[in-house]
Amino acid sequence: MKMSFEGLQRLFTFKMTPKQYLLYQAFGSIAVNGGLTEASMRPKGATLYVPFFGSSGIADDTLITTFLISSLTVVFGTLFIRRDYKTGRFDALAWTPRNHPLLNLFPYAVLGRAVMFGTLFTLAFAPATLGVFELAEIDGLVFRDFVIFKLLYAVIVGMIVTPLNALWVLTRPNPHGRTRP
After folding, report:
1. d(Cα 133, Cα 136) in Å, to the nearest integer?
2. Rounded to 5 degrees, what are φ and ψ at 49?
């Protein structure tokens, strides 16, 4: 049986409700953030022990990872969500800032939202995470344990940030008012 490109495309672009799409985004972030984290760890592979503080330490890496995952999720996630909207994969949410005032907290502009998400989630997650390391008196991790920590951390942050960004975009997926093709 031969499948055409269009048939394959239809197989992976089924219509979803906005709620299903938010779940799809959350679980998609596991694969993306997990893969990116694993790839970013390859250059550090020669390091056998990762200290808590210092150059390439857990503290610095956690701060940088949190900001980058949060802000890049907004930039790239928004592109994919808008593409999916244009292809008819989901309908926009009928929420407005008037009936859901929380939508006023972040801008719809991608770069502004990326900086705000990066800053907010870095301030919310990184100190708490690093505080747990301090409370547990962990002054470093062997490389294998550091990779496991970073993978889990990146996936958790991504699973929180991705659906929140998607929620903002689902309320206004077509910011320029153009209709679907």
Report:
1. 5
2. -140, 135
| Closest residue by Cα to residue 83 from 173, 176, 178, 20 | 173
Q: How many CB atoms lie within 10 A of CB 166?
A: 29
List Cα–Cα distances, 45 to 49, 133, 142, 145, 179, in angstroms.
Answer: 10, 22, 11, 12, 48
Angle, CA of 82, 94 and 124, to the nearest 5°: 70
Q: Which of 31, 73, 30 is nearest to 161 (CA)?
A: 73
DSSP, res 118: H
pTM, 2 dp? 0.78
State how far the Cα of 65 lies from the Cα of 71, in Å rounded to an integer.
10
Cβ neighbours of 146 (radius 10 Å): 20
Cα–Cα distance measured from residue 64 to residue 75, given in angstroms and rounded to the nearest whole number: 16
Q: What token pair was written down for 10?
A: 């239809």
Q: Give Cα separations from 33 to 76, 92, 124 (angstroms).
A: 12, 25, 19
What is the spatial distance between Cα 13 and Cα 149, in angstroms, rounded to a whole number? 33
pLDDT in tens, 84-121: 888 888 888 888 777 888 888 888 889 999 999 999 99
Radius of gyration of the chain (CA): 19
- Rounded-to-integer distance, Cα 162 and Cα 157, Å: 8
